[in-house]
Amino acid sequence: MFKLDSVQMPQQLSQAAHDREKVFQWIVDLCNAETREIALSELSSRRDIIHDLGPMIWHTTGTIAALLFEIVSTYQFVNPPTMSLQQVTRLCNALALLQCVGAHPDTRSQFLKAQIPLYMYPFLHNANKCRNFEHLRLTSLGVIGALVKTEEQEVITFLLTTEIIPLCLRIMETGFELTKTLSTFILQKILMDDNGLSYICQTYDRFSHVALILGKMVLALEREPSTRLLRHVVGCYVRLSENSRAREALRQCLPDQLKDMSTFSDCLARDQTIAAWLLLLKNNLESVMPIDVSPGVPSLVKP
User: Fold this and answer.
1) Residue 103 lies in a domain
2) pLDDT by residue (tens digit) across 134-182?
3) What is the pTM of this model?
């Protein structure tokens, strides 16, 4: 048995080294227009098992430029929407590789400093509801979702300087379930950051826009329930209720469906966290904690 293991070990190491060489070759192939499509496909399909793929891509000369070229060269097909399935698949593979770079702790800061997430925003702006573009939106949101999942303040600080909140709100209102869910997840993560919560509650316009879309989503969820989506919507409400001025406004604009635990009884039975959050939301809104009435601080209640 010992001899068999001693023979297998060098073979396994040799195979691992060979696989590593193929990965490096595919990364180099990204810089060649003739080999890029295959390299995109091969690397994207292995991104979950190559844990340092992000840094490998970032530190290889020319690869980020090649990936950004893949993105920018498709803008002309966004409006009017004329992308083929092959183009969308190739583009989504490029976005998935960029997601690896942004999600890795060793390259995330450089990824943000280079403002690479902004390259995805044209795809989020597009409202075409065909399957290809919905998949493209979902993949683009995945890049942002991987960033906010880290819960790092640097990520939220960067996103607050961009238009990600109104983009997410529009998708939350008009998208399909998966893109709605991911957009709401991103908004929830932004709200979980103190700076993000303060930003949204800073003005009546910002808060009212968020409250309006969340309210519409509750009405839609009453008609077509989704436990996963409801969880993120309720999570947003709970976090908003932790801001004193937003809490004052929510007492007037919280949808009745969230006050009655029976409305989403099936969802609550499947996810006890939602039930706990609704109770927390109720307790927060019934709280008598003081409201910030400092001079110059606007009310979030409808004038």
Assistant:
1) yes
2) 999 999 999 999 999 999 999 999 999 999 999 999 999 999 999 999 9
3) 0.90
Number of structural domains the chain divides into: 2
Q: Decide: residue 229, CB within 10 A, 0-12 exposed, 13-18 middle, 19+ buried.
A: buried
Residues in the chain, overall count: 303
Statement to judge: residues 95 and 185 lie in one domain:
no
Over its C-alpha atoms, the chain yields an Rg (Å, rounded) of: 23
Q: Is 146 within 8 Å of 99 (Cβ atoms)? A: yes
Residue-by-residue DSSP string for 229-263: HHHHHHHHHHHHTTSHHHHHHHHHHS-GGGT-TTT
- Residue 127 domain-assigned (yes or no): yes
Q: Which two tokens stand for residue 194?
A: 């103190």
- Domain hosting 256: range is 164-287
User: In whole angstroms, what is the distance from residue 128 CA to residue 76 CA?
Assistant: 15
Q: Positive or negative CA dihedral for 150, 156, 159, 163? A: positive
Instruction: State both tokens at 192.
Output: 């979980």
CB 63 within 8 A of CB 93: no
Q: What is the domain-level CATH number for residue 237? A: 1.25.10.10
